[in-house]
Design a protein that fits this description.
By secondary structure, the chain is an alpha/beta fold. Helix content is 32%, strand content 18%.
Amino acid sequence: MTALLKRPLYSVIIAFLFPILFSSCSEAGNARVIATRDTTLPAKTEEIRYKPAPIDSASYQELLDHITNGDSSGRWPVSTALPQEGAILPFNRIIAYYGNLYSKNMGVLGEFAKDSMISRLRQEVDKWQAADTMVKVIPALHYIAVTAQQSPGPGNTYRLRMPFNQIDKIISWANEINALVFLDVQVGLSDLQKELPPLEKYLSLPNVHLGIDPEFSMKTGKRPGTVIGTFDAADINYAINFLTDIVKKNNISPKILIVHRFTQPMVTNYKQIKPNPSVQVVMNMDGWGSSSKKIGTYKSFISPQPVEYTGFKIFYKNDTKKIGAKTEMQPEQVLRLKPQPVYIQYQ
């Protein structure tokens, strides 16, 4: 078995985040935050709409064959129903910057000032477009909207919901560059049934999608970061059905669901995961390390267990400084994978 790749705990659960946020998160304080943040979204956010385009089945199949990249295993491309009008995949490759605005350690999205971050993201988009001219490349901001915590917090859930004004800010930044938004959820000792409904008003926007992180789903009751968590197909199907209802209720284009993974137990019963024409599922290789280890993890846990599409995460720091590499993996290296990832996340 390929050596497992793990994200360093401090990059996800950071000490200085606790005094900043938990100081106002007593039961009374939390009620105050919820009351003040549940406001109408900015007008600019409401104005962003993507006009659905009919699915060209010939182009769809051509692009599926392209990203299969000569795979001869018979697993790819996955046989699924044609997506609904306006589907983003496989017609686009998404390049996402990941992080949280309260931390410079959780990802590039919070590490750099807005203008610098957007400039860097645009440079990555250009690099990927040059590396594969057949698939259109689009930017995204992937924001950790619910973060796992080392302290129990209200309700002993070991998770913290970000203020809605921070999500509003991310969406406004994305609107400026016509980017997608992904809201990422680390449930801790909570669950998706409790954590997704508060985000429904955002997920009802056409350009806002969802990410869920099994690493911090602590079904055993242990504290996040002490062991790697897990989601079953039943959890992932709940998220798929939740998004499907949103798509139908709002008559909008299909949603994308990102599921992070870098070990076998992080996702169980993958064959029972059921994408549908309203929700496109991406299994994202989320491990860090040398290029050989990252590729090995992809070949061990992502490629052999097909769901629908694949993603690949690149760490600017953990893939280089921690292992003495000169640079992170480049587009040309990642595009040699079979199948090619259609979602690339930078942390």
